[in-house]
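fyi for ur records
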Amino acid sequence: MKRITRLLLAAAFALSLSTLAFGQALMDRQDTVVLEKIRQARYVAKSPKVQSLGILHYSDIHGDDFAVKKIQDILSKYNPFIDAVVNTGDAVLYYGKATEKYPNDAQWWRRTGLAEKSLFVLGNHDGAFGSNDKGHQEASADWDYMGKAWDFDTFFADYIDDLGITMPKGYDDPASPFYKSCFWLKDFKAAKIRIVGLDGIHFNDKHRFSTSEQEIWLKASLDETLDPASKVYGYSVIVACHYPLDDFKGDNVQFDETSRIPVYNKNEKGGRVMNHRTADVTNFHTIVSDSFHADKRFSLREKVASPSEKYGYVPGEANPLGDIVQAWVDKGGKFVIWLSGHTHYDLLYYPAKYPGLLCIAVDQAGNLRGSSMSDRPENSESRFCANYYGVDTQNGLFKIVRLGLSRDRYMVEKDVLCYDYINKKVIYE
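which gave:
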């Protein structure tokens, strides 16, 4: 009997080892597949004088330790192909009294090891006290409870050198209007790309999206690329901002719970960002989207229509940052993409007001707050989400590889996409 028991235990042990080996082999195969996709996204033929740029983009991690682990894992596995890591905000949840309920605050973020690796732009939660304590008040829709100086000291001051970012001249001078500004830029010489990180949280002078000093700095930073005497002449530009560019005035999209489709009522309630609940009809991973194609990866048509183009409802007030970038494009500036988060949905679209500005929002990296169009099983790849981009400015290609979250609840695959941002069309298989 003892011999039989030993044999059974040995068999069970062997089976467990075999199962572990199979699981490891499966993970290794998945890593190999992802690596090949990333290699293809990063690749440019014929040893070009201008190299492509590899970007890992995540957003709205919201204090999720699981997402931190996944990002660190990606950086470890695919580091040779990652030139920049961009975090478009909402690293944390809340502050003040709310930290009793949500302990993963700024100090948590600083301990993750990602702060010194991620080109960061502030999200509405990053300097917030909690919506119930301050709320989205008129002229205070930024949730800016802690203040600009605290935000700078917490999220930027200790990481400027690590990240190699250039802050506005005067950011360290108390007498300067740029003192402790939370916007920055970084140049990538080999790829001839400038990434501009915008601050959509702080505003003054009755500007609802920005400050007058940020607008001055942004215009100068873009115009440098048009100056033949500048070291960055001819550079292409990527913008990173927590908020997507708006296409309408506030929450004028309602959701019909019976028909499960958006209803456009042309309300003008104020507001400044895309509708949280429904995003908009350019959301290319929802069953209600007119760009829904189950047989196409990333589910896109050749040109992504904006809501205002398609439905003609009343557009909202101008975004001064969008105005500046579009004016620069009209003068010949080379624009690649506006990177954002905030919506907890995947978006790829052109705003009707800014037809030269291709915009992308990535679904939330973490799973501790808010909804997503995708199911997020615990302890699975689908709980986490990020995008990898290969930016080929020679051929005008923006290549997307989804990492983590791979399908939405309608079984639409989120896998790879190659977008020709010069001719505004998807390159299908």
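The chain is about 25% helix and 15% strand. thats all i got for now
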